[in-house]
Write a structure and sequence with these properties.
Length: about 270
Amino acid sequence: MPDALAPASLQTLLGEFELSRFLAEVYGQQPLHQPAGNRPTRFQSLIDWAGLERLLNMPGCWDDARMRLVVDGRRIAPEHYCFALTGSEGDTRAWRPQPERVMGAMQAGATLVLNGLDGLVPAIGQLAHQLESALSVRVQSNLYWSRRGHRGLALHYDIHDVLSLQISGSKRWRLYAKRAQPGDKVPAERELRAQAGALTHEITLKPGDLLYLPAGVIHEAMAESDASLHLTLGLKQITPLDVASLVMRQLSARADLAAPRYEIGR
């Protein structure tokens, strides 16, 4: 039976690393690798192989935006693993994955990426909610399944902080010295590699390990086991632009403000 991850909280994820120290010395500043210690199965209460299999057999929950297949940094076109839902005029309205094609691509070396698991897996949803309350952020959850010797995503950086939870298998992460600014335009991989600077960390995540990366850390990862499964939690800071967008949406919903006013001659 997997270790219970309850209450699902940031301190629980950090294990023996004190939360106050994380907030003062690490959060937003530098990467942190926190090994599992004697609890290698501790993240399997969030999702395990059986849970992943259930998700893959729910094709109605997925489209090509929420389920992606990637081979060594290149995204597979949806027509290779999905069927098209068409409208009355024959136009494609959505792509729905075909489980047998998805599994075939995974066996051939493709990395599977599932987005938005907090709305489908209650344990992940609970964890996301608690992190949002504790850090005043919005949390985005993604699940990655990879085979040995294959990269999923290309060399890149995220515009938000990331918590990576290794559920099973192992994955080697390479972190580089250059830290990009979140507002920077993301260059092509070749250009980004030339800008990345020296390799500063090479970390192998094993089951139950946690890796925290601040926004802008340039990195890449490759599975070192026959099957690697990890969950990432993107910690998205709420910006002034987000607040302004919310206010505008609320105002646009008010009919009294949307109606034109004719005041000519007044």
